[in-house]
Amino acid sequence: MSIRHGLLALLARGPRYGSRLRTEFEARTGSAWPLNVGQVYTTLGRLERDGLVVQEGADEAGHALYALTDSGRAELRAWYATPVERTDLPRDELAIKLAMAVGAPGVDVRAVTEAQRRHLSAAIHTYTRLRAQALAEAPAHRDELARLFVLEHLIFRTEAETRWLDHCEARLLRLAEATAAKEPPEEPPQAPPIPPV
Amino acid sequence: MSIRHGLLALLARGPRYGSRLRTEFEARTGSAWPLNVGQVYTTLGRLERDGLVVQEGADEAGHALYALTDSGRAELRAWYATPVERTDLPRDELAIKLAMAVGAPGVDVRAVTEAQRRHLSAAIHTYTRLRAQALAEAPAHRDELARLFVLEHLIFRTEAETRWLDHCEARLLRLAEATAAKEPPEEPPQAPPIPPV
DNA sequence: CGACACATGTAACACGTTACATGATTTG
DNA sequence: CAAATCATGTAACGTGTTACATGTGTCG
């Protein structure tokens, strides 16, 4: 639902045509998440279907303009006002991969984390370079600032992921040492209950 | 694609039936990302369609068993060996929301971050409570450990998001003070070029 | 004129998700 | 026996995504 709301947000500045929405979207997200042009039109179609947007009139240049409806404005207001729920975060692939790797037959958890860590390192490097460059040229207004925020979001997230990997490895090491003497039992008799979240 | 690979990973321990796969999946992800049973069957169907899995034989109890094919094993090996690419991370809704909120008409960025921060706070609280409880009862093996990792992943990520919000607010404040004297220009003449990532 | 970029769609598909429809088995 | 639970599907939909088909300018 990110694209839907992103487009609504851009339309809040006034009517826009499809191609321009793509440009502005990427200007703010800094091409961290590139947006296919076709996607804009399909999404606009669905927004129109749901009554959040109407196609009305045209540009001086003849571009087909889309504008918010009252419902659209209401939806947008609600989006800003409501925090992103913990429950609608998408599944994190890395977390799932590691969760599955623990104790899996023929899987070297260390190799998995190692490979991922290298990748994260490279990513951090790229991000910080971009950030320095973004900061150099006056992080003044609007789009530049938005782009900087997105970039820093990626940096914070990547750093956290790196620290998490370290943490997991450390715990695995400690556990391996602790159970070095007595051979660990192969299979627990029953699956333990799942704690509610 | 997380579910596909998650199921493949679980099948690496041996043939399983659908309902059991769901139980084991949630046992490892700690119900952070609950999995509808129906989803297991639809996904198994698609895995079978793609030749990564075959339905073969039955349980003593008559449960229909699914097993990995060679392709399935290869796919799984590739999954573990390849790091999660930066480019296939899903769009982050919070990042997009903030990027859109910057300088948006009639939007109080501060209110947005404030609401989100409250939510993150509550989440951290819940997570750490669960974590303490998980650590208390011997974080011994397999599923328990996996669940702990997932939980800690959520904690690290949430903390990072909180710090990021702080960071954004601080920057906004500084910027507001700096431009308090001279009124900021409303619209930059041209959209700046998008830096490659 | 030909190449290129811009602008607008649309068709097709993948995955995730839920709701519903059935059997079979257990248990009060 | 009735109710609850387990197990297995399937139908239907939503979003995201890409590939393709055009038209319309512009510029060398």
Provide a compact summary of the structure:
2 copies of one chain form a homodimer. With 197 residues, chain A is mostly helical. Helices cover 61% and strands 7% of the residues of chain A.
Give the helix proportion of chain A (percent range): 55-70%
How would you describe the shape of chain A? elongated
Average residue-wise pLDDT of chain A: 88
- The low-pLDDT segments of chain A are 186-197
Strand content of chain A: 5-15%
Please, how many helices of chain A? 7
Query: Strand sequence of the main sheet of chain A, in spatial order?
Result: 1-3-2
Largest interface: A-B, 90 and 90 residues
- What is the ordering of alpha helices and beta strands of chain A? HEHHEEHHHH
Secondary structure category of chain A? mainly alpha
Please tell me how large the radius of gyration of chain A is. 23 Å
Based on DSSP secondary structure assignment, what is the total number of beta strands of chain A?
Answer: 3
Beginning-to-end CA distance, first to last residue of chain A? 23 Å
Number of domain modules of chain A: 2
Could you give a short account of the major beta sheet of chain A? 3 strands, antiparallel
Defining traits:
3 strands, 2 domains, homodimer, 197 residues, 61% helix, Arc Repressor Mutant, subunit A, DNA-binding, 7 helices, mainly alpha
